[in-house]
Amino acid sequence: MTTNNYLLLFFVIFSINTKAQKKEVIRLTEKPNVLIIFPDQLRRYSAGFWSESKYKSKVIGKPDPVVTPNIDRLAKNGIVFTQAISNYPLCSPYRGMLLSGMFPEQNGIWSNCHKNRDDSLKDDVETITDLFYKAGYNTSYFGKCHFTNNKPVFDKKGNYVGATEAPGGHYINSYDTYVPPGRARHNIEYFYQSIKDIHYNPHVYSNDPGAIEGKKDGELHLPKVFSPKNEAAKIIGYLQNKNGQRDSNKPFCMIWSLNPPHNPWTDESTDMGVLRNYYDTDKYPEVDETLVVRENADVEVAKYARHYFANVTSTDKYIGVVIDELEKMGALDNTIVIFSSDHGEMLGSHGLKGKNVIEMEALAIPFIVHWPKGIKAGGITDLLLSVPDVLPTTMGLAGLEENIPDSKEGTNFADLLMNQSSSNIKKPDGVLLMLGNSRGVLTSRYTLCLEENKRPWEKKKGSKLDNIFIYDNVNDPYQLRKISLENKPKVAKKLLVQLGKLLKRANDPWFQSRRYKEIIPYPMK
Questions:
Q1: What is the DSSP string of 159-179?
Q2: Which stretches within 297-430 are classed as H helix?
Q3: What are phi and psi of 71, to 5 degrees?
Q4: What is the rounded CA–CA span in Å between residue 331 and residue 333?
Q5: Is 525 exposed, middle or buried (0-12, 13-18, 19+ CB in 10 A)?
């Protein structure tokens, strides 16, 4: 092509109206955008697509009867992971692993961040936002953080003072707290944080005065809007960039952590319009086996199912609002959208609510990768995915594999996703499971659990193993029968060897002290 032709091509591309020009810049950029979305406490099978024939055979047990058209759209046009796991099914430990690509011993979070604990993401750990920022990306975070320790450094009105002396000395919440500017914010350029488990009254802090009625970073803002709706609106404002919230010449790396469908499951914290449309008594006269479908569930415990599913559907709606905006901008095709959750929800299974247990309803999380430009649509993978794998895999997908620090403990599975039929990457045959009182292994068939004589949230160390068992998740999909090691000696031996290796790889305290070495065959250093 001659020089004149090159000049003509340049002129044609750039001599278009301003609106179209912005679309063209987005379309031509080589680096993909990254959007990581994870609602809190969304269990793997709370999505409509699992009830369709293509996916139903991959379900362990039965999927929930929920309406999620936007999650379904991402699934059908992306890759669905059938065995993604929250290695430690609790809010803060998950976030520590997701952000750092490292296990708890290295990232600093061994339990939920709380005013009575010291757990906090280490400032000197390079996180996914640090690494994408260094690679030339705009970085942003919307929603729930819950990865830093909680200190009484606020005034009575909830404004950040930064000191415990008056007017400081007050907490704004027992668990999640404001992340101030500086190293703890890990190079998040645009920051919009929502705090408290009150879905229609999120406590918001932001470094964008235009998003919080002119307030400063650290001053409490109360929008009184359903948090997914509020955050979606702010994300759209950020994407449209009308007020210069980002550098439009750079790709973006955005994390959106929604609080629902996390409890409370009350009328006051639920999108009741959605509940009435999809889950009310005209469709489900009782909260019974037609709504709470898993065969290990106690429907009396799961009486909150209408509210839980309503907030799943409502969260899906506002995720769709953001996805639609990306499509309207012409940016969706070259945006790596990762959809997941921090852990599941028991919803009456084994007579329990919540998470922080070793059973599948708490461990199993959704994981979908949607990237039309880079990944073939409609894929399904049985890869056993751990949370620390997300950081290196995301960087690998974005073409930043050379930027992944050696300190990261997860595996980069990008090639497996981009070359689904020809990748030579070895899939793991087991993943590490952790709770405050337990360690274990999950394979494609079995769960092994070693449980100490303490509660998961207790600070004291366990002194002995109270419970050791195996679940056969193929023959017993609802985990109704605990199998002793003596009843499956060959399987037990193999799982214990795996556990020892995984604990070593994670530099877990159990490995460091060779805890229960009479049972766990730890490898040599």
A1: -B-SSSSTT--B-S-SS----
A2: 305-329, 360-363, 390-397, 414-418
A3: -65, -40
A4: 6
A5: exposed
How many angstroms separate the Cα of 125 from the Cα of each of 151, 376, 412, 434?
21, 33, 18, 21
Reference 358, options 100, 112, 90; nearest CA is: 90
DSSP state for residue 433 in the 8-state scheme: E
DSSP bridge pairs for 440: 433, 449
SS3 of residue 34 by DSSP: strand
Helices (H), 202-251: 227-240
Report the DSSP beta bridge partners of residue 203.
195
Q: How far apart are CA 226 and CA 423, in angstroms?
A: 43
| Structural tokens at position 109 | 């979070």
| Contacts of residue 405, Cβ cutoff 8 Å, sequence gap at least 6 | 126, 131
pTM above 0.85, yes or no: yes
DSSP 3-state of 375: coil
Residue 3 structure tokens: 């020089």
pLDDT tens per residue, range 239-271 = 999 999 999 999 999 999 999 999 999 999 999
- Taking only the tens place, the pLDDT of each residue in 111-123 is 999 999 999 999 9
Task: Identify the residue whose tokens are 């919440």.
Answer: 173
Please give the Cα distance from 68 to 245 (Å, whole number): 30
Q: Check: CB of residue 73 under 8 Å from CB of residue 64.
A: no
What gap in Å lies between CA 89 and CA 354, rounded to an integer? Answer: 10
Q: Are strands 190-195 and 203-206 parallel, antiparallel or unpaired?
A: antiparallel
Q: Is the dihedral of CA 394, 400, 401, 403 positive or negative?
A: negative
- Provide the phi-psi class of 144: left if phi over 0, else alpha when psi is between -120 and 50, else beta: beta
CA distance 345 to 43: 5
Whether residue 28 has pLDDT greater than 70? no
Using pLDDT thresholds of 50, 70 and 90, give the confidence band for residue 30. confident
Predicted confidence (pLDDT) per residue in 78-96, tens digit: 999 999 999 999 999 999 9
Distance in angstroms (rounded) separating the CA atoms of residues 131 and 249: 18
**What is the C-alpha to C-alpha distance for residues 98 and 338, in angstroms, rounded to an integer?**
12
- Classify residue 180 as exposed, middle or buried by CB count within 10 Å of its CB (0-12, 13-18, 19+): middle
Residue 421: what pLDDT? Answer: 75
Q: In sequence order, what are the beta bridge partners of 154? A: 160, 170
- Residues 71, 50: Cα–Cα separation, whole Å: 11
Alpha carbons 246 and 239: distance in angstroms, whole number: 8
- Give the type of residue at 452: E
Rounded to whole angstroms, the Cα distance separating 12 from 454 reads 69
Quote the CA–CA distance of 361 and 347 in Å, as a whole number. 8
Look up residue 240 and give its amino acid: Q
